[in-house]
Every structure is written in C-alpha cells, then in structure tokens.
Backbone:
C-alpha cells in the first residue's frame, strides 16, 4: 500500500502536482476513450497552463451515454481483480455511474476524508453521529472508516430512510455525540422533529454540524446554528474524485487538498482558466484516486471562484487554496410566467425565524389555473395569523406570485421526508 502524508509546504505541493499530473496523463493515454485525444500534447510541458488546457474536458453527459459495461470498456484501465470497490455517482438525476476504485485509490480516499476532521477542529475525544447513507455511495462509509485512522469516535447511523428520525434523535440524546455529519436538509428536519417532541437541541451535546451533498446557503447555515446551538461547517467532494476539501474556522471557503486533486476554474466556453476570484466552471483532475478511471479535467458542473489564501490561520489554511461556490443552480420552477429559483426561495423562507420548515407544492386547480401552495411549520410561540399574512405579502413582493399558505402540525414534514435521502422541498403536481 502507498504511504500518504500531509505535504510540508506549498512548494512541495507544486512538486507533487507536477509528478502526479504526468502520471495521471500517462494512465489516461491507456484508456480507450482517450485514444488519439492526447497525442498532440507534450507530456514534458504539462505544468504550462496553455499545454495542459489542450486536454479535452470530460463531463458526466459523456459517461451517461454508455451502459456500465461500455463505461468500463472506455474508461477503466485495471482488470477486475484490481478493483477494491465501486463508488456510485452522487447526482440525483439521470442514470447513475458506478466508478471502480483500486485498493490504492481507497488508501488515498481514506486520507482525503480523514483530513476533514482536523481542518474543522474535530479531534480525538469528539464523537460523531453520521447520517449519510452507508453503502455504495462513498461519503458515508469512507467518512466513517476514516475516523478510526485519526482517533475520532464514530457512530455509523446512516440516512433517515434506514434509521428513522425519531430513532436518530434518541441516539443523539443517549450517546451524546459532539458532531453531527448530515445533509443540511436532514439536519433541519431533525431539528423540526425535535421541536415537535419538545427537545431543546441547543441544550444537547452536538456542538459541530458538518454538511455536504446539498447547497449550504447562509440562511440554512444560520438556521442550523440557531436550531442546534452548533457551529456549522461545509465540505466538498464528489464520487468521481473523493472528499476534496473542507472549511476551516473562518468559514471563508473550502480548502482543497491540492496535493490530491488538481483543480482549475475555467471559462465554460473556452476551457481556459479564469483569473483568481472570478467565477467559472470547476474542473478536477484526481491525482491519487484515479488509478482505475484516469479522469483528466473532469467538469463537475459546479460554478465557483478560486482563492489562493484563507484567513483561518491554521495548517490547512496555510497549505491549501480555496474555492467558493457561487451557489448558482439550474433548479427552478415557473409559475404563471414567473421563474422562481429553488435556492433563492429556500433562502427567503429559512431566513424567517418564525418558520421551522416548509415545502412548496405546485398544482393545477379545478379551472385549469396554476396554483402555488407553501406548506409551513411554525416555531413555538409565534402568532400564526400574523406570520401567514406577513409571509403571503412578502412572497408577493419578492417573487411576484400569489401563494396559498397551509400551516402544518410541527413534525409533519419530517415524517414526509423520512423515506427520502434528500428532503423534497418542491413538488410539482401540475397536470
């Protein structure tokens, strides 16, 4: 097995990148899909941006046109006996892709996940409650496994569809973890259910919440912090690569493990790198987790900006650059000619402390007209009539649509979301 260690300096990282980019390039040349696509590139000049950017960008649309067998034929470069496990792609739409990983890939993957703990000030003596799926999607099982290597306690709980929310709250009350690792939507509806049960999470043991797999807006972050009395961190990763980085205490961006992953922020039209701090498409080349599938310049679909330095002042901030998500999303619905962005609407609702949870439902009424209903659960002690009236007025002012508001009993949405890996906050029932 290869040895893995933290780099000592940014200079060492540049040397690692130079060596590993060449190795990744040579591996890719043996994959059928790359046949003929790399012949015009000088392998001795890969550190020059102009030469590196001649490499074609690879995206998920390319992979989804193949069956699993075709994918293995086109991309995989190791025999079956060299595969340790498969990682499922994390996207919620389209046909999932299953990525083979070698035994060396798993070693480097364990390193990438284990680094996240110290970066977020999680240390031996902490106990984590992980509510990510424990299975073929790598986040939950690799995260949980990696804790052992750095002396962190870990309760392998799993997602809400495997362990019901009430049982999860019971485990948190009984075992008293200091860290909750969960999708932000699940952490929010655990908080909603706790409120319904009369449980004060701010008086509980959880003091750190780690989120991933869903956008974490500032309003969601603040709501989680209020509901749990905890500091909220974000991390970033993907099945195509691994866990690529995490926030530090300044919460000013995601520090990318740049010795393990070479990242570029590029113009989506030209594929050329954009200046620092400007937004573009994130492209990733796994330097140490691509032994079976040697992806070069993988287009993750994320819109981000690149920043050379953070302000946390710890080892991770000193060593690793950052990305910041622009939080753009293609998720939206159109109602009566008005486009409403999902993220914008979520931010609007979660910024209101009187509302503990919500779901938006689009429907068609008896006359054939479109209708938009917002189902809400209210925090304890608020004035229901005033909150509903104010909310209807603000939605009309901000989004220019009329809504019907239905007030639900606290905990209703948590039950509805129970069987889903991600909370379904927008439902389109139009006919």
Residues:
């Amino acid at each position: 097995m290869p040895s893995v260690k933290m780099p000592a300096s940014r200079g060492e990282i540049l040397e690692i990148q130079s060596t590993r980019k060449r190795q990744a390039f040579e591996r890719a040349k043996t994959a059928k899909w790359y046949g003929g696509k790399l012949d015009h590139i000088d392998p001795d000049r890969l550190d020059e941006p102009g030469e590196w950017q001649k490499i074609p960008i690879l995206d998920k649309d390319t992979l989804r046109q193949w069956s699993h067998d075709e994918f293995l034929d086109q991309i995989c470069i190791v025999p079956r006996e060299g595969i340790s496990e498969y990682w499922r792609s994390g996207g919620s739409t389209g046909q999932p892709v299953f990525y083979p990983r070698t035994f060396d890939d798993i070693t480097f993957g364990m390193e990438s996940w284990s680094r996240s703990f110290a970066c977020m000030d999680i240390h031996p003596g902490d106990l984590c409650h992980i509510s990510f799926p424990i299975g073929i999607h790598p986040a939950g099982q690799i995260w949980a496994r990696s804790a052992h290597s750095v002396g962190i306690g870990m309760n392998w709980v799993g997602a809400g569809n495997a362990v019901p929310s009430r049982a999860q709250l019971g485990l948190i009350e009984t075992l008293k973890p200091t860290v909750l690792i969960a999708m932000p939507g699940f952490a929010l509806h655990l908080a909603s259910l706790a409120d319904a049960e009369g449980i004060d999470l701010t008086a509980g043991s959880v003091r750190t919440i780690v989120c991933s797999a869903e956008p974490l807006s500032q309003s969601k972050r603040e709501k989680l912090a209020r509901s749990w009395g905890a500091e909220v961190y974000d991390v970033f990763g993907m099945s195509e690569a691994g866990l690529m980085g995490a926030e530090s205490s300044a919460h000013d961006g995601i520090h990318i493990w740049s010795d393990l992953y070479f990242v570029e922020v590029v113009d989506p039209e030209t594929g050329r790198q954009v200046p620092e701090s400007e937004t573009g498409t994130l492209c990733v080349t796994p330097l140490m987790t691509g032994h079976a599938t040697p992806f070069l310049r993988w287009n993750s679909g994320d819109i981000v900006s690149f920043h050379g330095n953070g302000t946390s002042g710890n080892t991770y901030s000193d060593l690793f650059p950052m990305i910041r998500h622009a939080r753009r999303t293609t998720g939206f619905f159109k109602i009566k000619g008005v486009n409403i962005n999902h993220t914008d609407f979520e931010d609007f609702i979660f910024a209101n402390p009187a509302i503990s949870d919500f779901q938006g439902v689009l429907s068609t009424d008896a006359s054939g007209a479109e209708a938009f209903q917002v189902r809400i659960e209210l925090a304890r002690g608020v004035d229901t009539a005033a909150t509903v009236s104010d909310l209807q007025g603000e939605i009309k002012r901000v989004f220019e649509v009329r809504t019907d508001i239905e007030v639900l009993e606290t905990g209703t949405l948590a039950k509805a979301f129970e069987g889903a890996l991600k909370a379904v906050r927008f439902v389109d029932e139009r006919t």
